[in-house]
Amino acid sequence: MNTGIEKLKEFFEAGSKEDESFNIGLEVEHFVLNKENHKTMLFDGEQGIGSLMEEMASDYPEKHMEDGAVISLESDDILITLEPGCQLEISTAPFSSIDKIMHFYHEAKEQIEKRLAPMGYFLSTEGYLPYGKAEDIPLIAKERYHCMDAYFKNSGIYGKNMMRATAACHVSIDYFDEEDFADKYRLAWLLNPIFAFLTENVTRFEDVPFKGHLLRDTIWQGVDNARTSLCPDLFEESFGFESYARWLMTIPVIVVNEGDTYKYEPEKTIEECFEEYGDSEALLRHYLSMAFPDVRLKQFIEIRSADSMPEEYVKAYCCLVKGIFCNQETVVNMLSLLPQDIQAINQAKDNLKKDGFQASVYGQNIRLMLLWLLRESAANLPDDEKAALALWEPLIDNEISIQGAIQK
Predict the structure, then answer these.
(1) Which of 370, 368, 361, 327 is nearest to 341 (CA)?
(2) Under 8 Å CB-to-CB from 130, ≥6 apart: which residues?
């Protein structure tokens, strides 16, 4: 077997949680906007996000630098990072308690907001930049992002938009062994269009009102099909860690970090980079980060479906995902009721984009599918987390989006 594939398999196997305690992790990306003119806070200058990161460094025991600038801050419970277009991402450590996750997220967000207020800025949570255009936002001073930007100009039509003007909410879930991974990974892909529809939170696209559906999905699919597609043998009986590793090996790597610098490698696949640059854990994690499927494998399953959204909806979404995936029997039962077919997933997305709340998803109206997800999730949650799911009910009953609920 290919050495790189073997290394990846070992890495994925090491991610199995043998004690069968189920944790989830959270990442939320935010736009930092001016209160008066709604322009994005840029990186440079006294009123820039680079200065903000330097100022916040005293709040965190670890800071990470690149080219003399602070690009991330870390504690035991929180990681603050910058996305390419100055989106500010708050990530929590994994916990089993949603209240604990939301406590650390809220605390970090509140600290940032207190520093932003005197500067005249605020944090905005939407799936796409609500004011301005992607082309008006320069990338932050991070070499990796500039390499990616150059590559995406030729790989698709939406690389510029994805990097500079999208914001997401990612939830990560544990797996207990390879079989459990395969079941959860398949189910996450099947539910991905439904999660994306429920959490869509976009008002404008390129400064024009947006009335469609699943904008962020359309953008991601227009970035680079080689790294955003599904693993082709997702529903084969043999699907597992090796399958994902083999798919990953075919992806062009774009950029490789050599020590403190990055090397642009637009032609080499990840398999070729394993042979040339090696298989250190740092490189291995880098290779994994260069794949952008809607559901990504690291040493956990990262569900990348949801738009960035207000805090109360983040909590409701975390509860929804937890309730579905924390119980192996629920996962297997739900999987048995859904089509084991990649084309069905793509068709579900197409139907939702075209028909919204009138769409058919896997042979059922989307409203019925959403109510099914809420019931299945609620059955596995404690009362306090079950109560949080109620936030979704008026959206489903009134057939509106998060923005529709906010503006009502």
Answers:
(1) 361
(2) 31, 33, 38, 124, 203, 204
- Burial of 349: CB neighbours in 10 Å, binned 0-12, 13-18, 19+: buried
pLDDT at 1: 61
Six token digits for residue 5: 């594939």
Domain coordinates of the chain in residue numbers?
Answer: 3-403
* DSSP-assigned letter for residue 208: E
Cα angle: 77, vertex 168, 49; to 5 degrees:
70
The rounded mean pLDDT for the chain is: 96
Which residues are registered as beta bridge partners of 295?
Answer: 303
Using an 8 Å Cβ cutoff, are 268 and 261 in contact? no
Bridge partners (DSSP) of residue 364 are 361
Q: How far apart are CA 150 and CA 118, in angstroms?
A: 36
Does this model's pTM top 0.85? yes
Contact 109, 123 (CB under 8 A): yes
Q: Helix, strand, or coil here: 133? A: coil
d(CA 87, CA 125): 10
Query: pLDDT tens digit string along 89-110?
Result: 999 999 999 999 999 999 999 9
Give me the amino acid identity at 174.
Answer: D
Question: Distance between CA 156 and CA 103 in Å, rounded?
Answer: 39
- Residues 168-181 have pLDDT tens digits of 999 999 999 999 99
- Domain 3-403: assigned CATH number: 3.30.590.20
DSSP for 18-31?
TT----EEEEEEEE
**323 and 377 in contact (C-beta within 8 Å)?**
yes
CB 313 within 8 A of CB 391: yes
Q: Is the pLDDT of residue 336 over 80?
A: yes
